[in-house]
C-alpha cells in the first residue's frame, strides 16, 4: 500500500475514533467538573426518609388514609396548640400546593394536630380543603422517623401507597418544597 493511502487510512481511522470518543470525553469532563450541577442549580431541599416505612402497614388503625387512598399527602405535624408558627406552616403548605399548578390535584394537605383541636373558624376561612386529624401513634411514628439532625415539626410527603417518602424542615420556603415535589411527581407513575 502506498504511503499516501496509509496516511489517508490513518486519518479516516482517527476521524472515526474522534467522532465516537469525542462526545464521551466531553461528557465525562462536564460531568466530573460539576458543570451540570452548577449550571442547572438543582439540589434537593427535602430529606429522603430511609428505610422507607409503609404507614398503612405500621399503623393499621390510623385514620390518615381514610378516603384518601390513591393520592399523595403533604402532612404537617404540630402536637401543640396552633399558634402563629403553626398558622404560618399551614400557609406554607397551602402555597406549596398552589405552586404545583396542574399537579395540585394529586396532593392533599393534612394537619396532624395534638390534643388541642385547631380553630375551626380559622381553618374554614383560610384552609377549607385541609384535612385535620389527631393521631398520637402517627405523631410518635413521624417523630421517630424524622432525621435526628432536623428540627421538630416539619412536613412529610406520603406517596399513594402509604409510604413515608420525604421530610422537609419547618423553615423551608414554599418554592423549594414545591420544586422537590414537582420533580417527584414528574417521575412518579402513581397517584
Give a verbal description of the structure.
- The chain has 191 residues and is an alpha/beta fold.
- It folds into 2 domains: 3-40; 47-187, Glutaredoxin (3-Layer(aba) Sandwich).
- The chain is 46% helix and 19% strand.
- It contains 7 helices and 6 strands; from the N terminus they run ααβαβαβαβαββα.
- It has helices at residues 3-33, 35-40, 55-58, 84-99, 120-126, 136-145, 174-187, and strands at 47-54, 72-78, 107-113, 131-134, 155-158, 163-168.
- Strands 1-6-5-2-3-4 form a 6-stranded mixed β-sheet, with helices on both faces.
- A hairpin with a 4-residue loop joins strand 5 (155-158) and strand 6.
- Helix 4 packs across helix 7 (174-187).
- The longest helix is centred in the first third of the chain and has 31 residues, at 3-33.
Amino acid at each position: 500500500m502506498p504511503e499516501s493511502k496509509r496516511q489517508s487510512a490513518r486519518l479516516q481511522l482517527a476521524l472515526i475514533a474522534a467522532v465516537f470518543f469525542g462526545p464521551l470525553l466531553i461528557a465525562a469532563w462536564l460531568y466530573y467538573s460539576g458543570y451540570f450541577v452548577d449550571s442547572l442549580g438543582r439540589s434537593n431541599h427535602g430529606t429522603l426518609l430511609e428505610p422507607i416505612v409503609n404507614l398503612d402497614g405500621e399503623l393499621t388503625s390510623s385514620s390518615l388514609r381514610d378516603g384518601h387512598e390513591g393520592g399523595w399527602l403533604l402532612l404537617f405535624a404540630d402536637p401543640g396548640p396552633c399558634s402563629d408558627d403553626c398558622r404560618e406552616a399551614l400557609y406554607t403548605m397551602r402555597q406549596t400546593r398552589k405552586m404545583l399548578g396542574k399537579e395540585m390535584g394529586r396532593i392533599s394537605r393534612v394537619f396532624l394536630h395534638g390534643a388541642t383541636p385547631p380553630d375551626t373558624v380559622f381553618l374554614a376561612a383560610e384552609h377549607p380543603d385541609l384535612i385535620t386529624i389527631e393521631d398520637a401513634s402517627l405523631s410518635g411514628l413521624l417523630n421517630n422517623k424524622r432525621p435526628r439532625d432536623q428540627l421538630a415539626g416539619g412536613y412529610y410527603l406520603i406517596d399513594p401507597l402509604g409510604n413515608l417518602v420525604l421530610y422537609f424542615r419547618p423553615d423551608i420556603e414554599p418554592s423549594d418544597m414545591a420544586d422537590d415535589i414537582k420533580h417527584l411527581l414528574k417521575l412518579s407513575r402513581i397517584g
